[in-house]
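Q: I'm writing up a methods section and want to include an example of the input and output format. Could you take the sequence below and give the corresponding predicted C-alpha cells, formatted cleanly so I can copy it straight into the document?
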Amino acid sequence: EINLYFVDAQSGVLVKSTQKIEAKKLLDNPYKSVLELLFKGPDDEKLVNSIPNDTKINKVELKNGILTIDLSEQFLNANGMNSVNSIVNTMTEFNEIEGVKFLINGESKDGLKDVFVRK
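A: Here is the clean output for your methods example:
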C-alpha cells in the first residue's frame, strides 16, 4: 500500500488516499511507478487529480535526498500549487526523499526553481 495525495473535490484541500500497488512494480523504478499511479488519478469519486491529464514523466532521479522530476510542459497548465504539493507529499512518503525539484523538459522554470518540501 502506498499513500497518494489528491485534492478533496469539496474543500479543495489535499488529502491522503491509500492505494495498492504491485510490489514488483516498485523494483525497477519505484519513484516513477508511484508517480504514474498518482498521475492516473484517485480511485475515489470524492477526490480529484490536480495534475493535468496529458503530463508525461520524462525522467526521475534521486540524488542526495532530492528527487528531481522532469515533466512535460503540460504540467505548467496545472492550477495553483495543489499539483506540486500532491507530488511532493506523495514522494516524501519515501524516507529517503527529503525534497523534490521540478524540471520541465530538462529545464528549470520560474515558480518551480526551488526544492519543494512537504507542507
